[in-house]
Automatic annotation (TrEMBL):
Molecular function as annotated in GO: dihydropyrimidine dehydrogenase (NADP+) activity
Cross-referenced InterPro entries: Aldolase_TIM, Dihydroorotate_DH_cat
UniProt keywords, alphabetically: Oxidoreductase
Source organism (scientific name): Riccia fluitans
Name used for this protein in its record: dihydropyrimidine dehydrogenase (NADP(+))
Organism placement in taxonomy: Eukaryota, Viridiplantae, Streptophyta, Embryophyta, Marchantiophyta
Primary enzyme class: oxidoreductase
Pathway given in the UniProt record: Amino-acid biosynthesis; beta-alanine biosynthesis
């Protein structure tokens, strides 16, 4: 492993290029600027609001790719980051960072329909467990979104604002969009390789994210141009999510964000026989989010974290966990699986921007309970408890032998009885 010093910058890497060196220096420069800021921002009426976790308790601040976030909670790209007003609200409520709604150069091609959301409720309750959307990327003019981001960075210079971007398979367009976004002062870029509806019809979003060769090539174009950290946002609608994630990191991205929504059909109205969300009697498959996707998101985040540990050790690459987060404990699970930050989108649409205060205090309670004083104290701590099924069998055989104890549960599938079926199932559940 080589240690390289240049103009006050140093980085460790097994293989590096001038490009990554230039980006790393820029990132480190930014980290110096941001390390000591106090998270305070003026609201419209001049009242000073503080970050959601400024009260006493374990330190929630995280430094990711050289950027300092006051807490790991980041607004995920979507409706909660569509314009200046809502992004400002997020900063004022204390969100650690904001990822703006995805933009592209030509918004005139983006035409949304209404209704574009459909919810899945838990049986016999009003509780929302799943959320489908067929919303496209931002339908606001690119210049308008640039103005919003520039204004936010002027008013909140020390808060983390990340632009989300999607483009067609055209190098010049990517270079233009990146240059103009960076010019607003945004701190990082998130590349949307993952929107599952609408945009793939134009070979964008998920269509790019599912093709490792195209994704790798586009990431190279992006990283040759970008001077701020780049996160690639992955689609879960692929057999092995670690493959595009590795290609993105190989091509110079500093981080991975996962997951975007899961391809879905929320349901069919049994009176009208029409699918939801129903637009003029018709629908199209959409993207699924909220609570129901969390276990799937956790599995994908775990797989990506293992891959980063194995393939890119000690290179400071980051992981942003996304999917169904509504509580501090949900976030703790993503962090235990290696996430540096945790994004929330649908949770904000259901509970509003003040949710961040609850997220922070619940995460702090979890940390206090375990004696963790920083997020890094427990980040990735649960990864080591995953292994193969073959290894579980070997370990259990070994443990039973060592304890000379009667093994819990049935010894063999032949022992199931119809009579005691539920009790027998209970003997093999772990929680
Ligand atoms: C209505 C809606 C619009 C979204 N728009 C975008 C988008 O423009 N760009 C993007 O990268 N992700 C978009 N997403 C995906 C979210 O950022 C997030 O990856 C996903 O919803 C899972 O997280 P959640 O369960 O916290 O919502 C959207 C999600 C929803 C619900």
């Amino acid at each position: 492993m080589a240690t390289v010093g240049l103009s006050g910058c140093s980085l460790q890497s097994q293989s590096f290029s001038l490009r990554s060196l230039r980006k790393s220096c820029r990132v480190q420069g930014r980290s110096r600027r941001n390390v000591c800021f106090t998270v305070r921002a003026k609201t419209e009426n001049g009242v000073v609001s503080t970050s959601a976790n400024e009260a006493t308790g374990p330190d929630l601040s995280v430094i990711v790719n050289g950027l300092r976030f006051p807490n790991p909670f980041v607004i995920g790209s979507g409706p909660p980051g569509t314009n200046y007003t809502v992004m400002k609200r997020a900063f004022d409520e204390g969100w650690g960072g904001v990822i703006a709604k995805t933009v592209s150069l030509d918004s005139s091609k983006v035409v949304n329909v209404t209704p574009r959301y459909a919810r899945l409720h838990a049986p016999n309750t009003k509780e929302v467990i799943g959320w489908e959307n067929i919303e496209l990327i931002s339908d606001r003019p690119f210049e308008t979104m640039l103005d919003d981001m520039r204004r936010l960075k002027q008013e909140y210079p020390d808060r983390i604002l990340i632009a989300s971007v999607m483009e067609e398979y055209n190098r010049a367009s990517w270079e233009e969009v990146i240059e103009r976004l960076e010019d607003t002062g945004v701190d990082a870029l998130e590349i949307n390789f993952s929107c599952p509806h609408g945009m793939p019809e134009r070979r964008m979003g998920m269509a790019m994210g599912q093709d490792c060769d195209i994704l790798g090539e586009v990431c190279e174009w992006i990283n040759q141009k970008a001077t701020v950290p780049v996160w690639a946002k992955m689609t879960p609608n692929i057999t092995d999510i670690t493959q595009p994630a590795k290609r993105a990191l190989d091509a110079g991205c500093e981080g991975i964000a996962a997951i975007n929504t899961i391809s879905s059909v929320t349901g069919i109205n049994l009176d009208t026989l029409r699918p939801e969300p129903c637009v003029e009697g018709y629908s199209t498959p959409g993207g699924y989010s909220s609570k129901a996707v969390r276990p799937i998101a956790l599995a994908r985040v775990m797989a990506i974290a293992q891959m980063i540990k194995r393939e890119f050790p000690n290179q400071g690459l980051s992981l942003s966990g996304i999917g169904g987060v509504e509580t501090g404990n949900d976030a703790a699970e993503f962090i235990l699986l290696g996430s540096n930050t945790v994004q929330v989108c649908t949770g904000v649409m259901m509970h509003g921007y003040p949710l961040v205060k609850k997220l922070c205090s619940e995460l702090q309670s979890f940390m206090s309970k375990h004696g963790f004083t920083s997020v890094e104290d427990f980040r990735g701590a649960s990864l080591e408890y995953f292994t193969t099924h073959t290894e579980l069998v070997r370990m259990q055989k070994e443990a039973v032998k060592q304890r000379s104890a009667v093994r819990k549960g049935l010894a063999s599938d032949k022992d199931w009885t119809g009579e005691g079926f539920v009790k027998e199932t209970e003997t093999m559940v772990s929680n």
